């Protein structure tokens, strides 16, 4: 609540402004008073002296109104004074005369005037600071222009979990759009309208100059809208806006960026911190070490350094994968996998080949490669077991293994139902219905397995090539034909002899 001193200050300010307005042009005082001002002075002094005489003699006085024009002619305020005992009450006609005398010709608020006059007369109190007339502000002219959709200029709200905690990893500073999203709209022009003061004086309108926004790359004008031609990151400057198909992250992927989920290509120049996920509708390029909690891309994955898996970390690649090394990681790739230095204790799946460079080694874990494997060294003398499976489509194998496991569960349940029926027959009707459902499910799974198994062994000419050494304990399987390494071998390749149905060992060619 404002203090009394603040009210006093406002009253002094308003009354001073009113006095200055009444004085008019003070520059004219240097050459004597004009006739209009001299007449006004005589009138004001006459009124003051008459009122003074009335007060000294106890004479009656009528109610009256005092007007003042404020805010550069946009407001007329008034103070209403009640009559003294025996005086005439204030009426609307007298207020109207005062308005005419002050040349108030626009925007009179007669409801406010009537209410103030009534209260002043009936309650006998002064009513001050009543706005009795308001001017009309001009409406500025606004040319036709593009205006961005507001949702692309505001950061997404914090993502809350059901228990009310904020998941900071889900927050992102990036504004993402989908193909066809409306980015901006064409705002039609607004005609200017002249304003008017309470004195009836015209106020010219101005022409606004809204910020000009030019549609940029990957945008399209459709009627009165600008839409995204592609899915990607929405970016803008004071003069333009566009959609970037590539998301470039100059620093690390961490709490500042949150998880990355982008429809196009992603380039990460910093580290990917433990626990943060990256999903891309295109390729992913990582210039540093990739700590893989969850990495998914529909195209290639290129890691300049290496990939280190973080449980339960997974990497799924829709194209090819290239990295310096892969360690303790689960990887699936639709294309080939090329590793510079080696693969350590990882589960690697490829529908192409798995190859290492001249110094590359493979130690531990399981490798599934439809087209085969090439490495300088496989296994070590004292290291963990290394398993290599070639010539089979890993995705079909995974489905067949899942069907096998489900069938085993169903068969176990079916045996329990049959045993129950033979033992006492209690609830035979319900158990019989359950048995029929279990048998039907097993039959469907077996049918699915039969349709898949014909596509499992796709590449009988797949081979495992070792440039230097392969150590005992390594397990090799080509199109379900196994071979166990029992002694160290050097510069060999393992191929399937289809006629004999076994794997044969040949010398590795110098080109491998």
Could you describe the 3D structure shown?
There is one protein chain. By secondary structure, the chain is α/β, with parallel strands linked by helices. Among the domains are: 76 residues, no CATH class; 100 residues, no CATH class; 57 residues. It contains six helices and 32 strands. The strands form five sheets. It has a 19-stranded mixed sheet that branches. The chain has a four-stranded antiparallel sheet with strand order 4-6-11-10, with no helix packed on it. A hairpin with a 4-residue loop joins strand 1 and strand 2. Helix 5 runs antiparallel to helix 6. It is elongated, with a radius of gyration of 45 Å. The two termini are 88 Å apart. About 3% of the residues have low confidence.
Q: Care to count the β-strands? A: 32
Percent of residues in helices comes to 10-25%
How many angstroms does the end-to-end distance come to? Answer: 88 Å
Main sheet attributes: strand count, strand direction, barrel closure: 19 strands, mixed
* Beta strand %: 35-45%
**Whole-number average pLDDT?**
82
Contiguous uncertain segments of 5+ residues: 155-169
What does the radius of gyration come to?
45 Å
**Class based on secondary structure composition and strand pairing:** alpha/beta
The tally of helices reads: 6
Principal-axis shape: elongated
């Amino acid at each position: 609540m404002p203090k009394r001193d603040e009210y006093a200050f406002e009253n002094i300010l308003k009354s001073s402004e009113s006095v200055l307005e009444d004085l008019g042009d003070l520059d004219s005082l240097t050459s004597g008073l004009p006739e209009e001002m001299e007449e006004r002075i005589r009138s004001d002094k006459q009124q003051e002296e008459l009122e003074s005489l009335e007060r000294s003699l106890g004479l009656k006085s009528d109610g009256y109104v005092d007007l003042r024009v404020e805010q550069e002619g946009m407001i007329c305020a008034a103070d209403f004074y009640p009559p003294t005992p025996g005086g005439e009450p204030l009426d609307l006609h007298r207020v109207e005369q005062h308005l005419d005398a002050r040349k108030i010709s626009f925007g009179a608020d007669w409801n406010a005037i009537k209410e103030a006059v009534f209260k002043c007369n009936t309650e006998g109190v002064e009513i001050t600071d009543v706005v009795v007339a308001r001017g009309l502000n001009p409406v500025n002219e606004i040319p036709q222009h593009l205006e961005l959709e507001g949702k692309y200029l505001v950061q997404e709200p914090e993502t809350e979990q059901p228990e009310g905690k904020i998941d900071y990893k889900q927050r992102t500073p990036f504004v993402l759009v989908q193909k066809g999203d409306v980015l901006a709209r064409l705002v039609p022009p607004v005609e200017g309208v002249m304003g008017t003061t309470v004195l009836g004086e015209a106020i010219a309108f101005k022409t606004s100059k809204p910020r000009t926004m030019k549609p940029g790359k990957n945008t399209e004008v459709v009627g009165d809208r600008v839409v995204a031609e592609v899915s990607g990151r929405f970016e803008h400057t004071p003069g333009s806006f566009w959609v970037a198909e590539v998301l470039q992250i100059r620093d690390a992927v961490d709490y500042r960026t949150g998880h990355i989920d982008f429809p196009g290509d992603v380039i990460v120049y910093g580290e990917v911190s433990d626990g943060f996920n990256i999903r891309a509708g295109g390729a992913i390029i990582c210039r540093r070490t990739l700590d893989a909690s969850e990495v998914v891309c529909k195209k290639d994955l290129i890691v300049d350094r290496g990939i280190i898996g973080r449980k339960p970390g997974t990497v799924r690649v829709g194209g090819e994968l290239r990295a310096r090394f892969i360690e303790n990681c689960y990887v699936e790739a639709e294309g080939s996998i090329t590793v510079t230095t080696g693969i350590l204790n990882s589960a690697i799946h490829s529908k192409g080949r798995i190859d290492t460079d001249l110094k590359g080694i493979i130690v531990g874990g399981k490798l599934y490669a439809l087209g085969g494997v090439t490495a300088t060294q496989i296994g070590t003398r004292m290291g963990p077991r290394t398993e290599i499976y070639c010539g089979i489509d890993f995705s079909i194998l995974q489905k067949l293994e899942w069907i096998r496991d489900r069938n085993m569960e169903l068969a176990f349940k079916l045996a329990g139902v049959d045993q129950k029926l033979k033992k006492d027959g209690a609830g035979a009707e319900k158990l019989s219905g359950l048995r029929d459902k279990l048998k039907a499910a097993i039959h469907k799974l077996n049918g699915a397995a039969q349709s898949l198994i014909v596509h499992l062994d796709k590449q009988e000419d797949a081979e495992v090539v070792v440039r230097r050494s392969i150590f005992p304990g390594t397990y090799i399987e080509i199109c379900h034909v196994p071979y166990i390494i029992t002694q160290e071998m050097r510069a060999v390749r393992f191929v399937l002899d289809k006629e004999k149905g076994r794997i044969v060992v040949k010398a590795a060619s110098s080109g491998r």
